[in-house]
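Final report, results section. Input specification for complex C-07:
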Amino acid sequence: MFNALLARLHQGHRTIEYPDAPPPPLPERFRGRPTIDASKCPDGCALCAEACPTQAIENSDKPRIDLGRCLFCSDCVNACPAGAIRYTRDYRLAVRQRADLVVHPDREIKLAAAFDEKLKRLFGRSLKLRQVSAGGCNGCESDVNVLGTVGWDLGRFGIQFVASPRHADGLLITGAISQNMRLALMKTYDAVPSPKIVIAVGACAISGGPYAGHPEVQNGAEAAVPIDLYVPGCPPHPLTILDGLLRLLGRIEQGRNLTPDLAIAE
Amino acid sequence: MSSLGTPASSDSHLATVANGRAIDRAAVPELSLEEFQQAILAAVGRDQRVVALFGMLDPDPAIVPLYLVLADDQQSSLRLARTRVRGDRYPSLTPRCPQLHLFEREIAEQFGIRAEGHPWLKPVRYHRSYRPGHDAWGRSESQPLIAGVTDYFRVEGTDVHEVAVGPVHAGVIEPGHFRFQCHGEDVFHLEISLGYQHRGVERALIGGPNPRSIHYAETLAGDTTVGHATAYCQVFEALGRCQKTPRSQTLRGIALELERLANHVGDLGALAGDVGFLPTASFCGRIRGDFLNMTATLCGSRFGRGMIRPGGVAFDVDAPILDDLLERLDASEKDCKSAVDLLWDSPSVMSRFEDVGRLPLAAAQDLGLVGPAARACGLQRDARHDHPSGIFRFAHIPVSTCDGGDVFARAYVRWLEIRHSIDFVREQLGALPSGAVRGDVKPPCPDQLAVSLIEGWRGEICHVALTDANGRFERYKVVDPSFHNWTGLAYALRNQQISDFPLCNKSFNLSYCGHDL
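Structure output:
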């Protein structure tokens, strides 16, 4: 007992203050939202699109990156002879519409909007989620679990993962939706009482990720269920997931100074 | 079966290759099926292990070639052989060599050849045969395949009941189906049915290397990104005879041990949580993140995505990063010790860890267990020691064992390994060789076979690649440590309380996606 108290003293209080204060600094090499400087693109060059393992880059006129497919690897950055594509350390990536995941060279980002008033009243202070893992690599699950640790303490926002779909307000889906999980996913979805929401976390759940096009998977959850929040990444950083959840619940007020470090990743 | 005589005493008829080396495919001796099976029995009788046994497609659709990789841990060498199975059946060796049971099931499912006499020849991942028209269970193409729908073992009798759990679980966990045969609270038998995470990675690797290949390797099991990516790169480099730089090898070793640290610390916290001991559960959940963040300092990703690449590593470290990592390593070491020592000091924890989920040494040996689960039964088995590659040829990490085979032993082995890994990372950060972090990358040579063994945090990761006449992957075999160990968990549950399942499960902490591929 005495040792437990000593250990408690040693370990201290570690829950981050975010979103009431800026989040802890991310590593210099962290790869957040990419930026494209199309003015640097050599004429007719498509090396970035060719290097991309998941065909996330479309290069018909100016390159555009679909974050729903992006693995946040450096293959395009390394392939580009002109340095036109760079990663920033902007962790804010979650959106409400699939089309908003596409990064254009000259378009503003459109982050996830909050629920309407009715859903905000229902879920704003208490959101219970059932997690369904369906054909991924357990990376997203790991960083969703991290949100439950003392450092992040997801419970303080009233967000909780529950053991039964009957107790849930929605699903948090990870994985490319393997053929072998499709039935279980649908049964789980049907068992959640309405109104219900679906959150797709990670490139797999949004587009199939590295497994896109495999006959063994369904290329993401969209073919099976309607999606209310897309959190891209492979896997997304816990901060990216939390930012998305809090935006959805209207817990990150507009205008508050939480502008992240937009420096280019090293 | 009866035609199998006394096992031969010598294995001079097998090819020998070292971990991380390639061999001409033509140099792998082709044995008759009988000689092939005798070679397996003889080797296992000499304490060698089957690290891989797999089929592949042949131009002749009536034939399935089988390849065998045996590990001789004493000699630090690997033995290779192949055979050809003609027809849709062959005699199973599982009754005489239980560690083959899942390999034979996998071959049956992938290539439609039945291992006759196998005691539980059931599907592994629930997909169609890779050889159209050859299904081991005679199912037609039109018959729907539903994962988990199979004949389960059933115990009959009054007061016997069955408990079915999954594939969707109560927490944030991967999908799997668990079927318990219980008498009251006691578990007679647990059967584990997986395949829900099957996403066709092995099949997709065929025809590579291509831009996706390394990403497949990194996501075979996302919590073992460094382990699997290193195994892949080692195969790639062996096939192309690439030169590797000392600095890259050291950085790979550091990343591998950081991955082990994060996961072992997380497991100890989760074990504490499963017995309701919240201090260690809370502390370790956070400290795990500290180790993940060290990996992110190296390469930007908490899971080591992007770090390991053919030819070396994609990120170098400079003096400020080294100093920062060393400082954080010291702090995390203190935090770990403070958090984990509480476990061993608390009688309420020890009484829940000790003598629960005991796996006897003989069972671990028969089933071919690997990793901390094997070492917790007293087996001296660690690829870093037995088949060292990269930095582990020069920097030795002691093999940590315990001999209880229970939850406590599996927890304590992790604690021993945490301390050794911290020492290793500190030593290597302080003695990083100079030079480049990436050597020349040459494409794989044609008609080669390469084997790579890496001791990931769960145990031995085995990758085997065979190239065709154009230097493309004709077959790529992945054996995740979980492939060997899931049956160990099922065995450890025998005669345990069903309420101890979460604790036992966490003490193994196996991968679903690594198994399902």
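The first strand of chain B starts at residue 15 and ends at 17. The domain at 206-357+387-396+411-489 of chain B is CATH 1.10.645.10 (Cytochrome-c3 Hydrogenase; chain B). This concludes the modelling results for the funded period.
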